[in-house]
Design a protein that fits this description.
Two copies of one chain form a homodimer. By secondary structure, chain A is of the alpha/beta class. Chain A has a single domain, classed as Rossmann fold, CATH 3.40.50.620. Helix content of chain A is about 35%, strand content about 10%. Chain A is built from seven helices and five strands. Chain A has a five-stranded parallel β-sheet, sandwiched between helices. Chain A starts with a strand and ends in a 16-residue tail after the last helix. Chains A and B meet through strand 3, helix 3, helix 4 and helix 5 of A and strand 3, helix 3, helix 4 and helix 5 of B.
Chain lengths: ~240, ~240
């Protein structure tokens, strides 16, 4: 029987390439996305198209209210979103776009679903290079969560499942992720990275996430196929 | 300034007594409850009354859809709920009322809220004695989650907060919890434990949770003030 994997899918470059990694390994894919009150309202729509593109077995979209908790520029209008930062400053400090315990919440749901469907592998597109410096994207955190999975669940305690948190991108630069995604057949025109897109869906080109994406495409030597507010952002 | 604590509050005997412990320690209480698709639709209403009784600073009620994930007799009608089990059988095996990764999901939200409001202490009413044998109620699991908190979050990584998962009931029997609750002024008529109450709110008296509760009150030598379907259940 084909082995199952749960893949956290935000609809960005990293999670989409991660899904492609899981697919190439032969897993039956259970993609998991969240409406969590994020500024980018297009993210989940793009995730749906990506899930369809890859022919996933199931795409579960959960609505969770992180706006009620706040504490981040992505979920609270009270906190301003950094734009036009120097690339060398990105990742040096944890920025206001950090969402408290977001990956812990996402992984907790992924674990619940994995246990229910009998999947041992949970894929998440975290990477420590060319990242925003979020603490819950580091390998040390991921390893602690993996250990937790095998203490938290009935299936693990009874020896039926041994959970693994799979992070195929952890040591790749953004350019390497994009190159690898291209090799694996990812259609990057379906992906969306901007923290704060315009109402027409165009990416701002100025937030940390757009800047890291644009730098990645440039270094990888590919044209970024998505639409930006200012087309000069995207010069490849 | 008064220190803040997040308290997970289901509205049962354990979480309510845990709240009383946090209160007596002098914390400003931020109570957190969930509509998660549980069979007991009265639970959250009782939690509201308890939060009011204790004069908490804030009571956050989040709706999260664990029904969409299923895998438990508490969240799926497809899985039958054990009733009338022998007391000596309860806790020997993990029963079908186990909800995949429930405490991991609850604690993840509690962590997000704690970080946002600047609380270091997160209280949860798990206990290993007179329990249903859930893996995510054991101290080894709780310690692993505590360790995770301090890797997962900006506030911990930056040295601003050191999270502690507080489990004042971990080594108490149900009778001891009830005695302690009485000492601390808990009004147990506000609590609700039944996994599957009747539409009029009466507890079934037969599920594991009712049985553990009734045994606890009996051993503690107190009358259980809530209403049961069959009043002979409650003979003290």
């Amino acid at each position: 029987m084909q082995k199952k994997a749960v893949v956290l899918l935000s609809g960005g470059v990293d999670s989409t390439t991660t899904l492609a990694f899981a697919k190439i390994e032969g897993f039956e894919i259970y993609a998991l996305s969240f409406h969590y009150g994020q500024r980018n309202i297009f993210e989940v729509e793009q995730a749906k198209k990506i899930a369809k593109f890859f022919g996933v077995k199931e795409h579960l979209i959960l609505s969770i209210d992180l706006k009620a908790i706040g504490g981040s520029a992505l979920t609270s209008e009270k906190i301003s979103l950094p734009k036009n930062r120097k690339l060398t400053d990105i990742g040096r400090e944890i920025p206001s776009t950090y969402v408290p315990a977001r990956n812990t919440i996402f992984l907790a749901y992924a674990l619940a679903w994995a246990e229910t469907i009998g999947a041992e592998d949970i894929f998440i597109g975290v990477n420590a290079i060319d990242s925003s410096g979020y603490p819950d994207c580091r390998l040390t955190y991921i390893k602690a969560f993996e250990q937790l999975c095998n203490l938290a669940t009935k299936a693990a305690v009874e020896g039926k499942l041994q959970f693994k948190i799979r992070t195929p991108l952890i040591n790749l630069s953004k350019a390497e992720i994009i190159k690898k995604g291209m090799e694996l057949g990812v259609d990057f025109s379906l992906t969306h990275s901007c923290y704060d897109p315009l109402p027409d869906g165009k990416a701002c080109g100025k937030c940390d996430s757009c800047q890291l994406r644009l730098k990645g495409f440039k270094e990888a030597g590919f044209h970024d196929p998505i639409r930006y507010v200012n087309s000069t952002n995207n010069t490849n």
